Amino acid sequence: EYMGRKKMFFVFSSQKHLTNRSFVLWRSQINKFHTSVVLRQNGTKIYLPPRKTMLVAIVGRVNVGKSTLFNSMINQNKSIVSAVPGTTRDRVYGEVEWGDWKIGVIDTGGLVYTTPQSQPLLQQQQRKQKSSTKSVQNSSVPEGDYVTEGDIYEPHVRAQAIVALQNADIILMVVDVNDGVLPMDVDVVSLLRCTGKKVLLVVNKCDNEKRELGAHEFASLGVGDPIPISAIHRSGIYSLLNLIVEEYSKAIGYENVDQIGENQSRELTDEEKKEQPMKIAIIGRPNVGKSSILNCIVGSQRALVHDAPGTTRDCVDSFIEWKGHKVIIVDTAGLKQKNRAQDMLEKFSAIQTLKALSQCDVAIIVVDADIGITHQDSRIASYVNDAQKSCLVVCNKWDIHHDHNIAPNKSPKAAYTDAIEHLFLYILPNPPLLFTSAKTGEGVSAIIPAALKIYNQRSHRVPTSELNLILKETTIRQSMPSRKQKHLKLKYITQSGIGTPTFVCFVNDSTLVTDSFNKFFTKLLRERYGFEGIPIKVVFRSTNTPRGEKSN
Fold it and tell me: Count of CB atoms within 10 A of residue 470's CB?
């Protein structure tokens, strides 16, 4: 095995081991780390090329199970699923590795058309869904959550779906077997025919044989044979993935797995392993401008922006390249106070936001300069601190900020800086502060460089010799804690981890270390080596502590 050269060789003694199933199983694991795979049997070389990719868009009218199908295909609960129509508003991306392919999947919002034929049925369906939602949740659902003719989000949802159709290689049109063929489905088919791309008709909610037989009714739409599935029970998902691969392979003339082994004349590639992209999560209270900042960074309307709080529900991923660096930016839903999150959608959105925070490398905390720093901002900062994530603070809406008499004798930026430092003093690790305006673009260009600087500092390793010099400086600047005439003695220190920089300091007795001394020592490390916005962990260990015994 030549791991460093990103090639892998297998040697077999008999032909029976070289099966197509083995190719698929090995390929699903090996391609996570290697660009090519080579199989050898008795000197015969069999080459497997790098994994092929495609993009699949899931579209359809509202409340037919698109998000449930999306989660079933990627085997993750990434998109929020609810009985409320119009839950999904932005494009949600996911990936699934299937055999020789890496399939990108896009979940979109429901397409709504207000044609004379579809409008009466739409209103009737909304009344039925509204009553069923009330009985299930036993609570009233706001009118704004329903996609109606005057819905403020409808144009954006349709625009996001059209972008997904333009980028997709295969389109999955999802319909509901319980509702039958509706005029709205005919309108969606008319739109899909204009794309000129392969469309697969997926009939969802086929939970029994009777409903599977009813799926044949949708053949009248004229987009191919209906594919009955049940997304919530994952019935028919594997067959659907196989059909997607088969149809796209035919479209591009790609040879199947059985024929790949015959391509022995192709030269091996020696591409370098690509670096993992930095993942940034934008978090904050509702309506502070998180989605506007994302759109300003990527240069397009990637996420829905509206004055109404709680516009963003799903976590929206965006991939960019900044001066050769690959970055994934995740826009999240606003975090409300727990006692104010009433409906289930807000609770699901909060769970998704905290999950995105736990998976990111750098968190961007956005605060509203017009309103000022609130208690909820400090609560969000505590979430970042509990997750041990590097962070920076972005003070948005600086173009319309008002001086709230924070400090009359100081400039507005200096006053806000002091207020944020005072509020986050015992929560965040001295995070950098940026003043931006997503509306005018002021200061937004500095966000990615600041995040990259923090990201690179996370991997900084301090030499042990320099750390031991800090111990001598500590003994000069700070009196050592003591108890019963026994003083703390610092012996030596070393860095044991990166990402969250961890330092292990060996002392004579770790029980003598106080919180004030720990904070002083951490502050001294920051003064010397930076680590702005990066949590630092200092472990004091007694030299006479047996291995495995807990120390401070």
Answer: 20
